[in-house]
ABC transporter ATP-binding protein (Devosia yakushimensis), 244 residues
Amino acid sequence: MPDLVIENLTKAFNLLKAIDDVSLTVADGEFVTLLGPSGCGKSTTLGAIAGLDRADIGRIRLGNQVFFDGAESRFMPPEKRDIGLVFQSYALWPHMTVRKNLEYPLKLRKVPAKERDSRIDEVLDLVEMAPYADRYPFALSGGQQQRVALARTLVYRPRLLLLDEPLSNLDAKLRERARIWLRNIQSRVNVTTVYVTHDQIEALALSDRIAVMSKGKIVQLAPPRVVYDNPATEFVADFIGSAN
Ligand code: ADP
Ligand code: MG
């Protein structure tokens, strides 16, 4: 079942088309990765889905919610979109413990107090951070902070998860471990996910499907195995090949 539907999305900065006629459908519960070199338009696409940025042309909808329709000048403000967003700089609130960091988005969404604790415990368990609930962010490693940032997004159960290079601040070894638990978590919560990375290995390891981007366009959209074995263009072959 299609969940997120993006049609003919275009966004220019001055004369440069950062994204150029991007269409993409993500199924319910699917994990799709936007993969490509720096500057190819991944973050601009994600920003348009999140509503941080407004595209010029095209349509975006999630289920029956219209996020954006250029022709009809419809634009749903980001806070109304049922999404969870995690960036590479996973800024936790430094003056709040892990538990308070997770409680805050629940308070914002008016989740009743008696339900909050059980939800927080559930996601802390999920990201294996339960023992750290009362710590402040400064007393956590980068990888742990990153897991808390993900938990803070999952705790309010968004319909759509948007992740922009969430592992890129971690060192190589930690990144490899993080890939494994990220994949585990996604398969357990089964939330529709759009993941952004310039790291081929990460994309191959995590995704149900990969959208390879170049110069604002999707040049191939296929499962990892197909992208790897049958790259659609020389660009894709080079980019995937450079993983080794
Ligand atoms: P990626 O995330 O794949 O590295 P981006 O989506 O951030 O790429 O950027 C795509 C292109 O759009 C790049 O050429 C970038 O310089 C340009 N761009 C992105 N955001 C802005 C902006 N706010 N103003 C001007 N140009 C931008
Ligand atoms: Mg980017």
The mean pLDDT is 93.
